[in-house]
Design brief:
- The strands form four sheets. Strands 5-12-10-7 form a four-stranded antiparallel beta sheet, with no helix packed on it. A four-stranded antiparallel beta sheet has the order 9-8-6-11, with no helix packed on it. The chain has a two-stranded antiparallel sheet with strand order 1-2.
- With 167 residues, the chain is mostly beta strands.
- The chain has one helix at 5-17, and strands at residues 22-27, 30-35, 43-45, 56-59, 85-88, 93-96, 112-113, 118-124, 127-132, 137-142, 148-150, 155-161.
């Protein structure tokens, strides 16, 4: 697996915009280590070898990191009303409400869902991760906009579980 310069820029943007101090990523033989504010090489990769791994620079620390445009409207850990269930982002990435551009959203306010009902997708480095409701009930609020950058733990959708209205 190889990372393009665009992939590295996206990783650095995420590290910068969410205040992540250090990131280590290992996928197969690929190893990426990013330390915010560290002198020297900003990101490194190398093939895993039994004796000693060799590190090859992918990007110089002077690589520009795009600034985040605006703060998120609902920060991570935002409260939900008692009796309701928050479906949180399982990771940092871009949240999509629909399976494809121009398609109908996975869920809308007032829609009944089952635990396995997809409520959206979180994209991380071109990998699409389906987020399911996790509970049976009715969608009461959609807090994340389509194509919005979300943080780990950020509330995406609020669901009223079945039987909660009668309890």
């Amino acid at each position: 697996m190889q990372l393009s310069q665009a992939d590295v820029i996206e990783i650095l943007r995420i590290v910068d915009s969410f205040g992540i101090g250090e990131l280590r990523l290992e996928v197969g033989e690929l190893r990426l280590h990013v330390v915010k504010g560290a002198p020297g090489v900003a990101a490194t990769a190398g093939a895993a070898q039994a004796s000693s791994p060799q590190l090859v620079p992918l990007a110089a620390p002077s690589m520009p990191v795009p600034a985040r445009s605006e703060p998120e409207p609902h920060p991570r850990g935002a409260a939900v009303d008692a009796g309701l269930v928050a479906v949180n982002a399982p990771m940092v990435g871009t949240f999509y409400r629909a399976p494809a551009p121009g398609a109908a959203p996975f869920v809308e306010v007032g829609q009944r869902v089952r635990p396995d009902t997809p409520i959206g997708i979180v994209e991380v480095m071109k990998l699409m991760n389906t987020v399911n409701a996790g509970v049976a009930g009715t969608v009461r609020e959609v807090r994340a906009a389509d194509a919005q950058m979300v943080e780990y733990g950020q509330v995406l959708v609020v669901i009223e579980p079945e039987g909660a209205a009668n309890a």
